[in-house]
Amino acid sequence: MSDLKKINHRLVTCFQSSGRIGKSTVFEGILAWARFAGIPVAAVDCDAEHRTLSKRFPEAAFVDATRSKDEFLQLIMELPDTPLAVADFPAQATDFLLSAMDSLRVLDALDARETRLTVLMFAADDPTATASLAKTYRALGNRADYLLVKNPARFRSEVFDQTALAELFKRDRVPFLELPTITATTIQAIQDASAEKKKHLTYSEAEKLTSIHQMCRFEIEYFLNRIFTQCEDVARVLVPDPALIKNKVSRPAEKATRRAIDEFKPLDDL
Fold first, then answer.
1. Which of 43, 49, 75, 102 could share a disulfide with 60, CB 3.0–4.6 Å?
2. CATH number of 9-181+233-248
């Protein structure tokens, strides 16, 4: 964790050199959770090719931060003054980002701003993605916090679990978040509704649309509930202070069900 006496801001991002791993989905989940929890949050879209984040969240700022070090410097200098900010960088930018972090002394600048960096690390099963994780971990070390993301719909995390990097994460007690899978039927329903509305719907927006089949909305609700619960569980690396959480996830039904199962004695009625 941070060596700073006080952290006033968190910057959550990902430097991984692999596309279609679920980055934008995780960022969307973190943004939705932060709003549910009552935490002021801002988003910066740095992916000039896809602009996924700014399409879903029009209020997100767009900065082509990987075009040059000048643009990257401007991004760091003009970070939103909120407790939490997320920045979505394009894939294949690991080398540029780590080089800019080093030459511009970004970690020192973040320390001076009382900002702690949290890097999403996706548990990938291909060598290129894993190599970029190792390179990031080696470059930033304990001057950043990490959140391991498992995406079973995209990668087999058990392959990653056998790597030396996974052992390092386990030793350093890096928290993890498992991205819930969502059916192709529900994804298509969201895409169809987005086309009808002529805007890219977020999961939170889609979950409220009665034009989407109820079963699909149930699945979206489950997806968001799992994301919110896990974000709350790993809040220590997502927000400067978990005390900022104003609205917490309700879990009494889950606890009651577990207690009922634990107390159930099927042989008593025989």
1. 43
2. 3.40.50.300
